[in-house]
Amino acid sequence: MRITELFTAKSIELDSAASNRDEILSRLVELQATHGNITDTEAYKKALYAREDEASTYCLLYTSPSPR
Prior knowledge:
Distance between the termini: 48 Å
Structural class: mainly alpha
Order of helices and strands: HHH
Radius of gyration: 14 Å
Helix content: 40-55%
């Protein structure tokens, strides 16, 4: 399966209300399962956490005010 098949406009959520890594990963699993991209949600979630434990891809974006 190609990455372009997994991440379609329907399986991506840009304005998520999730505020931490666990919520974000749970939402990602939910979106992928809902759109038929995965069948074993527990195995997928376990693999995501294993990848995150190796080198986290989680980042919290913070934009500081621009001095003017």
